[in-house]
């Protein structure tokens, strides 16, 4: 009778050994040990397969959550856009209506028309920002060609604007972080946005640190300032597009708060992530992690 | 003359609302934050509050419980005037008298405000 199940084979061998002479019993027990090794091999192969399946399942879950997150942030962005468009449209439509519906003096005409023009220009800035986001997305889909980008050159280019604006800039590229696989012009735009953002929130003469370091599978580029920092509660929201830390700073610092949204779009397109932390001693540090092949994979 | 308190952080809105409502013989007082709005509500005793929902970092709806806890202001009708259309249900559930979207129609604003004025 042939037993294919290694556990059953093992049991049969051990049972058969009970009434045997010493020498025969020894040889049978050796056979039993061999079957036991088969069992162990089968068990380990099975376990490896289960681990692989589990890992595949987890990475699918991560990808699905990422897509849901992207979907949510797109919906938020569209809602923010609609608010941003309707805000200047309210006085444009309101004043135009008043000009049509009542007697107005020449001075009033000039005053109302000036308001309409100013709000019209606000509206135009919103539209231009939207076109910029759309063009970055389209550009990436069509033409992104990740190449080996010189990190020191990237950081030095970004530093030009900061130095021109009177900041003291330090650049540090750690060993192993000299190159990054990315779309050069898009990643350059991200760093420029991060530097411009830091300029808005720090005074003349303050320090700015631009650095690059290599983690296992990620190249991390960071822009550290010594401004007021970003409160914990705002650290997601500021990447939402047309959102700034708080609205009083929208007035104070101007701008449409779209730069960080653009950064996140570009970093997402690279399969990476962007976030903000505290700078040790106070300030905000924006970090983008761009996934890289492992050192051992590269030629 | 009855007072309409406009709570809105867009500086131009006060003049626009005042001119839109000029046939109703009301005075429009504008406040740009919750703090300013409460102070103005106490001093001006408005007949109506027109409330935007996004006031800098503040949520306009947060003024409702503050008004309710002051006997002199508890019954002042509040009408929301905002670009944040998606918050209509939430605002109505909190007991506002009306909800108008920006950009608003002049007739719509007059129709919403007129019947609530004393």
Task: Output the keywords.
heterodimer, A: 299 residues, alpha+beta, five-stranded mixed beta sheet, two-stranded antiparallel sheet, elongated, B: 118 residues, alpha/beta, five-stranded parallel beta sheet, 5 helices
Summarize the structure in words.
The complex is a heterodimer of chains A (299) and B (118). Chain A has 299 residues and is of the alpha+beta class. Chain A has a five-stranded mixed sheet with strand order 2-4-5-7-6. A two-stranded antiparallel sheet of chain A has the order 1-3. Chain A starts with 5 loop residues before the first helix and ends in an 8-residue tail after the last strand. Chain A has seven helices and seven strands, in the order H-H-H-E-H-E-E-H-E-E-H-H-E-E. In chain A, strand 6 and strand 7 form a beta hairpin. The relative contact order of chain A is 0.09. With 118 residues, chain B is an alpha/beta fold. In chain B, 33% of the residues lie in helices and 25% in strands. Chain B contains five helices and seven strands; from the N terminus they run E-H-E-H-E-E-E-H-E-H-E-H. In chain B, the strands form two sheets. Chain B has a five-stranded parallel sheet. Chain B has a two-stranded antiparallel sheet with strand order 4-5. In chain B, strand 1, helix 1 (13-20) and strand 2 form a beta-alpha-beta unit. The longest helix of chain B is centred in the first third of the chain and has 11 residues, at 34-44. The mean pLDDT of chain B is 92. Chains A and B meet through helix 2 and helix 6 of A and helix 1 and strand 4 of B.
